């Protein structure tokens, strides 16, 4: 019962480290994801079976990504993976 005073809700803690402490390697997105997964695994905050990393690709081995620093204007960047 949500109105029960004995129910305690723990504050949400994101599974990732604060942005300014993340390990980042420019141009190596796979390495960055690996480091993030490694951080999540080593901090044992959430069950690892509840965490997923997805790599998206297609037959042409290219994907458009928006909101990248390398983009021209408001356009997308096509990365060849």
TrEMBL record:
One of its GO terms (molecular function) is protein-N-terminal asparagine amidohydrolase activity. It holds the Pfam family Nt_Gln_amidase. It is an enzyme of class 3 (hydrolase). It catalyses: N-terminal L-glutaminyl-[protein] + H2O = N-terminal L-glutamyl-[protein] + NH4(+). Keywords: Hydrolase. Its EC number is 3.5.1.122. Residues 24-80 form the Protein N-terminal glutamine amidohydrolase alpha beta roll domain. Monomer. Belongs to the NTAQ1 family. Mediates the side-chain deamidation of N-terminal glutamine residues to glutamate, an important step in N-end rule pathway of protein degradation. Conversion of the resulting N-terminal glutamine to glutamate renders the protein susceptible to arginylation, polyubiquitination and degradation as specified by the N-end rule. Does not act on substrates with internal or C-terminal glutamine and does not act on non-glutamine residues in any position. Does not deaminate acetylated N-terminal glutamine. This is Protein N-terminal glutamine amidohydrolase.
